[in-house]
Design goal:
Blueprint lengths: L18 E4 L15 E6 L4 H17 L7 H6 L11 E3 L6 E9 L2 E9 L6 E3 L1 E7 L6 E6 L5 E5 L3 E5 L6 E6 L4 E2 L2 E2 L13 E11 L2 E12 L1 E9 L6 E2 L5 E2 L6 E2 L3 E8 H8 L3 H4 L10 E2 L23 E2 L6 E8 L4 E3 L3 E2 L1 E2 L1
Parallel strand pairs: 2-6, 14-26
Antiparallel strand pairs: 1-2, 3-4, 4-5, 5-7, 8-9, 9-10, 10-11, 12-13, 14-15, 15-19, 15-20, 16-17, 16-18, 16-23, 21-22, 23-24, 23-25
Length: 350
């Protein structure tokens, strides 16, 4: 308690103990769960890269902590700007080992380290670094998952995801996801420092292809400080390009509205094809027939995000990796230039 009420924090790995509990059957859990099947302590000192990472994170806590007089809530609030730690972990189905991704502040930005440990039934487990320290991506990891063949994927606060190399620890092929961000940060319980509510709250969104015209319709449920919109399209649900040079001005002239406002944007499908580099023949099969491969996401919002490629497929927001589909999202720009996006939808041919 001296730390919280008057003392200066000087935490190191010697002051920290982390335990992992194992529960074999979560389906039997009650509101008052019984003792875990097993638990063990993490050894954070043996691997020097791991020890350096943990100490870097703890230094950020020490530096941000309010050492002045104040209430308990003041003390806790002073740690809001601390970045790092690990948000998630997963078991590799091919070897039974537990993997995570640890972020901590470095001299020139946020660093990341892939870590691995065995899962014993008791005692201690040494936490080992996998490969080298990463400078990219420079945002926090917020979710991790293995697929059933042992490929390891990470989702980051920037909204990007990538495959984590289990030899080098490097995050490969970073790609933007269709998960909305606020000010470039994923909107979730871990998102920090969002200064104001969204400038436009999206309601219903639709995209249709009618007589070689792409017709995008949407409505906002509320607007505040909203300037304009524009539309982006993608052939794979991941790499989006803007299709309209002109802006779609907000209809709320007073600057604020709590009422529903409707918008519509129409463009010739040939223009869309030119932007995406698609052939007109390819666009002619927008009936969405044939085989499709889906990149699937399972997002769990209980203090963390888990990104899974063997999880359940979303019927409307799934990413289709074929070339016979057109995906659409709407960009909203507020008066200071901040851009946020709607959910991703798939155009329907009529």
């Amino acid at each position: 308690m001296i730390y919280l009420f008057g003392g200066k924090l000087n935490l190191t790995t010697d002051d920290v103990k982390i335990y992992i509990a194992q529960i074999n059957n979560i389906s039997s859990l009650t509101s008052t769960p019984s003792n875990p099947s097993s638990y063990y302590e993490l050894d954070l000192l043996t691997d020097l890269k791991v020890k350096t990472a943990i100490n870097g994170f703890l230094k950020s806590i020490n530096d941000n902590f309010n050492n002045n007089s104040g209430s308990f809530n003041d003390k806790i609030a002073s740690l809001a700007n601390v970045k790092g730690g690990f948000q998630d972990m997963d078991v590799n189905p091919t070897n039974g080992k537990l993997y995570s991704y640890f972020n901590y502040p470095g001299s020139s930005g946020l660093l990341g380290l892939t870590i691995m440990l065995n899962a014993p039934s008791a005692g201690k487990s040494v936490v080992n670094a996998v490969g080298n320290v990463n400078t990219t991506p420079s945002t926090e990891n917020v979710g991790l998952a293995f697929d059933n063949t042992g490929n390891f994927y990470g989702l980051f606060a920037s909204g990007q995801y990538g495959k984590i190399n289990l030899t080098t620890g490097v995050v490969d092929n970073l790609t933007g996801s269709n998960i909305p961000t606020v000010g470039g940060v994923l909107s979730a319980d871990y998102a920090r420092g969002i200064p104001s509510p969204l400038s436009a709250k999206f309601g219903e969104i639709s995209a249709k292809i009618i007589n070689n015209q792409l017709v995008v319709s949407w409505n906002t449920l509320a607007e505040s400080n909203n300037s304009h919109f524009y539309v982006e399209v993608s052939k794979d649900g991941s790499n989006f390009k803007r299709i309209n040079r002109e802006i779609i001005q907000s209809k709320v002239t007073s600057g604020n509205s709590d009422s529903s406002v409707s918008y519509q944007f129409t463009i010739d499908i040939n223009s869309t094809a030119a932007v995406l580099g698609l052939s007109l023949l390819g666009l002619g099969i927008f009936g969405f027939s044939g085989n499709r491969r889906y990149l699937r996401f399972l997002i769990v919002l209980m203090g963390f995000f888990a990104l899974g490629f063997s999880a359940c497929s979303k019927s409307q927001d799934a990413i289709n990796s074929g070339t016979d589909s057109l995906f659409v999202k709407i960009a909203q720009v507020d008066n200071d230039g901040t851009v946020t996006y709607s959910k991703v939808i798939k155009a329907v041919k009529e």
